[in-house]
Amino acid sequence: MTSAIPRLRFCTRALALTAILSAACGGSGDAVVDSGPEGGNVDGSVVGDAQVDGGGGDGCRQGFVLLEGVGCEVILESLSVSEGMLTPAFDPAVDTYDVFVPTTVENLTLTATTAPGVLLSIHGLPIASGVPSGSIDLLTGETVVPITLTLGSRMRAVLVRVHRDGSYLKQVPFDMVGVQAKAGYGPLSADGNVVAIGAPQFKFDGMAANSGAVFIYRKASDGQWYPDGVLLDPAAKANDRFGSSVAVRGNTLVVGAPGKFAAGNWGGAVLVFEHDTIQWNYETTIVPLKSAAGQDAIFGGQFGQSVALDGTTIAVGAPRYPTPGDAANRSGAAYLYVKSGGAWSFQQRLRPSSTVGAQVGESVALHGDDLAVGAPGVRPDVIGKAYAYHRTGAVWDLERTLDASQGAQLEDGTAGFGSSVAVSNGYLAVGEPWRSRIEGRLDGIVYMYRRDAATSDVWNFFQKMLPSNPLNETEVLFGSAVFLRDKDLLIGAPSQNVSGLEEAGLVYRYELRATAWTPVETFRSFAPDAQDHFGAFVAATDDDVVATAPNEDAKGQNAFQNIFLSANYGAGYVFERP
Question: Which residues does residue 281 pair with via DSSP β-bridges, in sequence order?
């Protein structure tokens, strides 16, 4: 039985023959015998003849024209690395990637997934789709790892260039002298040679539960970090949560205590400390007094949940501040204070939204006369917003309301846009850790905005940063913390899996290179473990990257820590640039 010669497109000869004969011979499923090309190539095609042996001497022959390779694609479906992250993010159409790792990373593995029928090799060795490669040793500098995909007569090469540059070489865990289990050790700020880490659930000997503390570390002339004291609220009470937020600049340290009883109720407070040549000294307590214009000390307002400090200006978030005259509507607010003549005084209260549960002030960030305020609970979709303010003279004016629609990402559902904010030198970053790019996954996104160069008073969407999530983890929470200084951007992903350990946590570092923020490396804790949440808080100085893991167990990383045996002490790490 012979029918008209078909002209079909298939990626391999075997698939073509099977399909042709199945159609011509009724899909007998018997063996296919290819008698070879007849007539040679015709316009890049292969002309031939094939036969199915139906058994019992009966057979079915069918001529064919196989348009070999026409319309065929050698598809790479996914690619991931065990260290660092792919730049750009994986795209099936991209053939060259860069990965940046510190010199402490000596090897890595790659995992590639291909379409059915594609033969795969990584670094010259054949391997099955979806299986991690063997360990690949890295050179100092650049190591090129080739990935080869073969489908029939077609071949595709993908290159992964691993840069082992050692920009941050040394990882040092802080000596956690006196830290307690489940103390909430983690809220973080750093400046120069000083790092301050809050522990809002800390209970000092003889003091009430959850009164809180702040641990200070200082970098000495030998380059080592040493404990430099523990700060307490001089009028501490139970549930003050002193240390829920911290901000240090120069010789000034600001500490939030959002549960503190002050001004006649539990509205919260901020305490200010100053450093002399020897130690930190308590200076004053800031409370939103009812008697001051535009201020209201309201029960449960959580004044001090977030703080920011730059020069002689303090920004304070009170995310449960109620709308005046409507105590049930806790939309939130942000407060500004300035120091003049040696005293801190109220400057302005900001209430950009009166929406119930907006959480205005859940996050705040300051740089000069620029202020960013996050409101991750804006209704009705719980999408969240952020607000960009600029100060002219003594007045803060709203320049723009930011949301995820400016990054073409707005959709229904809890996303937490504004959970974290950072601003520096004409750039403003907003974290949206609960964003789901795929249903059921909380990947998270960070949005970058840039001040318009022409008008200088408009913030425009500039770039969107995404986590590397090759294993499709259900929670990454990329953007739970952001830090921005000059050309450095840090992003915390405290629920990202590390080496198979669920929610161990990771920190991403980006640099502003030419016209884009480029991912350059990732950081992990000294000894990662499940549920550590490393990267819940991030900060940096000119020379160091600092991150905390609030749930890390005491593992005895050094002589000061080996006495702690209980879970969830928390830990802080500094990564030093050589």
Answer: 274
Query: Which residue matches tokens 């001089």?
Result: 234
Question: Hey, which residues does 97 pair with through a beta bridge?
Answer: 160
pLDDT of residue 540: 94
User: For the segment 315-331, what is each residue's pLDDT rounded down to a tens digit?
Assistant: 999 998 876 666 667 78
The string of pLDDT tens digits covering residues 555-578 is: 544 333 322 333 567 888 888 775
Beta bridge partners of 545: 540, 575
Name the strands in the sheet holding 427-432, side by side, starting at the edge strand that comes first in the sequence. Answer: 420-424, 427-432, 445-451, 459-465
| Domain range list for the chain | 7-66, 76-164, 194-361
Q: Do domains 76-164 and 194-361 have the same CATH topology?
A: no
> Residues 6 or more apart from 118 whose CB is under 8 A from it?
74, 75, 129, 149, 150, 151
Question: Helix or strand or coil: residue 327?
Answer: coil
Q: What is the pLDDT of residues 537-551, one digit of tens each?
A: 999 998 889 998 888
- Residue 322 structure tokens: 């109620």
Architecture of domain 194-361 in this structure? 7 Propeller (2.130)
pTM value? Answer: 0.72
Between the CA of residue 60 and those of 8, 53, 65, 77, what are the distances in Å? 19, 7, 17, 38
Give the CA distances from residue 214 to residues 181, 200, 201, 280, 314, in Å, rounded to whole numbers and listed in that order: 15, 8, 11, 11, 18
Three-class DSSP labels, 362-403: CEEEEECCEEEEEECCCCCCCCCEEEEEEEECCEEEEEEEEC
Q: Which residues pair with 309 in a beta bridge?
A: 314
Residue whose C-alpha is closest to residue 310's, from 363, 360, 248: 248
The neighbour count for residue 157, using CB atoms within 10 Å, is 11
Specify which residues 226 forms β-bridges with.
218
Kindly write down the DSSP assignment for every residue of 232-275, as one continuous string.
--TT--TT--BTSEEEEETTEEEEEETT--BTTBB-BEEEEEEE
Question: Candidates 3.30.420, 2.60.40, 1.20.120, 2.60.120; correct CATH number of 76-164?
Answer: 2.60.40
Q: How many CA atoms lie within 13 A of 432 on its CB side?
A: 29
